[in-house]
Description:
The complex is a heterodimer of chains A (349) and B (503). By secondary structure, chain A is an all-alpha fold. Chain A has helices spanning 2-10, 23-29, 31-46, 53-78, 86-102, 118-141, 147-166, 187-190, 198-216, 218-228, 230-235, 240-266, 277-287, 299-318, 323-347, and strands at residues 105-107, 112-114, 192-193, 196-197. In chain A, the strands form two sheets. Chain A has a two-stranded antiparallel sheet with strand order 1-2. In chain A, strands 3-4 form a two-stranded antiparallel ribbon. Chain A is globular, with a radius of gyration of 21 Å. In chain B, 32% of the residues lie in helices and 26% in strands. Chain B has helices at residues 46-53, 76-81, 99-103, 117-130, 146-159, 176-191, 203-209, 232-240, 293-301, 323-329, 338-341, 349-353, 365-378, 395-407, 425-440, 452-458, 481-488; strands at 6-17, 20-31, 35-39, 61-66, 69-71, 84-87, 110-111, 114-115, 164-168, 195-199, 212-217, 220-226, 257-266, 270-278, 282-287, 308-313, 316-317, 331-334, 413-417, 444-449, 461-466, 469-475. In chain B, strands 6-9-10-3-11-12 form a six-stranded mixed beta sheet, sandwiched between helices. A six-stranded mixed beta sheet of chain B has the order 18-19-20-15-21-22, sandwiched between helices. In chain B, strand 21 and strand 22 form a beta hairpin. The longest helix of chain B is centred in the middle third of the chain and has 16 residues, at 176-191.
Amino acid sequence: MDNVEAAQNLLPGVAPRGIARTAGALLFRGRALVALFALLVAFSVLSPAFLSAANLTILVKHVAINAIMAVGMTFVILSGGIDLSVGSIAGLAGMIAGGLIDHGVVLRSFGVAVYFDVWLVVLIAVLAGAAVGAINGLLVARLSVAPFIATLGTMYAARGAALLLSGGATFPNLVGRPDLHNTGFPFLGSGAILHVPVPIWLMLLFGAGGAFAAVRTPFGRHVYAVGGNERAALLSGIRVKRVQLLVYVISGLCSAVVGLIIASQLAASHPATGQSFELNAIAAVVLGGTSLMGGRGGIGGTIVGALVIGALADGLVLMGVSEFWQIVIKGVVIVVAVVLDQLQRRLRW
Amino acid sequence: MTPTGALLAARAVSRQFPGTLALDRVDFTARAGQVTGLVGENGAGKSTLMRILAGIDQPTGGSLEMDGRPVRLASARDAAARGIAMIHQELNLVPDLSVTDNIFLGRELARRGMLDRGAEEQQTRSLLARLEQPIDPRAPAGKLPIGQQQTVEIARAIAQDARVLIMDEPSSALSAAETAVLFRVIRDLKTRGAAVIYISHRLEELLEIADTVTVLRDGRVAAEAACCSVGIDWIVEKMTGGIPSSRAPAATVSRAPVFTAQSVSLGRELRGVSFAVGAGEIVGFYGLLGAGRTPLFECIAGLRAPDRGEMRLGRRSLDRLSIAARIAAGIALLPESRQRDAIVPALSVRENILLASRAGFYISPVEERRRAGELVAELHIRTSGVESPITSLSGGNQQKVVLARYLITSPKLLLLDEPTCGVDIGARAEIYEIIRRLAGRGMAVLFASSDLQEVLTLATRIVVMASGRIAAEFAAAEASEEALMAASSPLPEHAGGGTLGQR
């Protein structure tokens, strides 16, 4: 029984809800997975290079960036909110890490610069992302600012802060110096454990952790409840404001990790990193069957959604489809996914 | 040949849903100048039939006739154009728009393409005057109490000059006095030749207003009769085939106060309310709309903070405790509006039941299914499984799910605001039994109800509220419908507040 349920949890839309009446309904419910499978088959036929280990590794590494961000975004959207600041947070976190590695913290009064170990640099950058998320959360939960507006504001502010850190310039060559004990940063984006790139491990970690938190912890239940019916959640003794705060903190944290991965891959951080990432993350969440109204959906669907977007982009490039057409196709796919979602709800499949 | 005055009729109408046959060759006739009552337990097919008659849903078999001619109602708009209006059980108002805007929504009065607000407001005033309701046409609809919102819905239907008016539980949020006004309006509509279809779970009421009654059971017409020739027992028997519940003996009451309220005041809504309730008591709060029952319960549960006064659970003061802390301390509120405040529609029965449980860090699916399954069995919740969507349950069973949710928190004080609103007779009796059982275990129960019969059936003690004060108090044995109604009429403004006023 548990396996059946676990499998259904991967399907977007309505999570484990009894047994589907027909195979057709089951396929329709799992359409994101079906679409992903169809894409993989189609592209591997159309382009021999598609299924090569090298290409698949690149594909999944690209997917990992969007997927990690989308995991955080899923929590926010499930709670009934939206987070537009994720791309800016990624850029800011990368710049904080870059600055700390290249220049350390300059203490003018002492005339010295303090350099941190890489793990500490990573921790500081991630905490900074979480802090921006906390600002979002406080604006939404305590000051009742509409999530769209609150995160639009922090989107600009965090981007500006990222630009201010370097005066708009890039922090190059983030390999650290042995004498400062801060080498090893590129491992995060370019390293591998057991021949699997670190970003993919991180995606698995965040995906599994997020899915566990969403389905198997009271916090996850509370997120669904707040998004599904805030007043019912309140009257059930759920600390609604705390839940709202936490989802934005999680989103900020995930975004910071994404920023670090990108800076690490390039061994450089640029203040414009992450621009328009929020739209890709939202697209993955929606494609995965999570309702923008909140309360419905899940992490499994989001990961599948991110994979669909990634496979589509990668396959179309391999087939030599023009970049402009790729954008059109992506848009169409997102709209079709949402239309199918509505259809499912109307037919009560 | 069509019988005289058959305005709207269903002929052998069926509606097949995937897996269930909601309506099975149903014949139904609404006649001009008559009120046709429609009863049946939840799931009997009433709502489906009404949705078909209002053009919202399409039959899969059979046909509709209007004025003796076959008709196809393609949409609600189509039906409305033919003079069919429906008042839904769930309120359908836009909360931020004014009362006037809501009444004219979709058929705004315009002059040269511009909204004619003056004319709209004037018509609204005369409509509300006809309904004898002191509602400000400019007030946002969402700010009104639920009963007044219901009145606005009724005004909206009347404003359309409908020839066929379908009312689905119109009185569920209305007090006895408001219901009387509604009945006057319905009789007025009758004399103007309208056909009214009236659905209600309150059978006394139905017999009072309806000319004929149609009983649905399991998607079929179980019986039809002229109302003057039948009684409640007959209808109940046709609806259920079961035995109607009787008044159970009062539980033994210990007088150790579980909860005390001292001079609780909240703006104009509560003016110095004081009372105490002991373990095992079931106290019924009766009153008209705006008497202060809901604000009182919301203050106790922590949803709103009173301006003055003190509340204690046992010896512990509730001052400044959050809702969550009060739940932990042992207070649970079953809210008045199930849809708005209680049900999370996207979640399953299991998840809805366990919403208020204070689990640790990990949710075990096996453990959860076990706990939810136990409560489903204990409260006789009829569902195909704990993983079913909550929205697949009938109103009565949804209410039992909400009840189960709060039982998990092991409350000492259970607050039930209109516990059987929109619940069918069978489930209603079961909910009464559950409440009595809980009181028997030593829980203190407060419930608010606008249903006199319910208050008299369930309560061991009855408190009547009027204008934010406690107007009278009765032991269950001493109370009568007349006495409760008399006590509930609003007090004059200058009357003194303070503690219990005995009549």
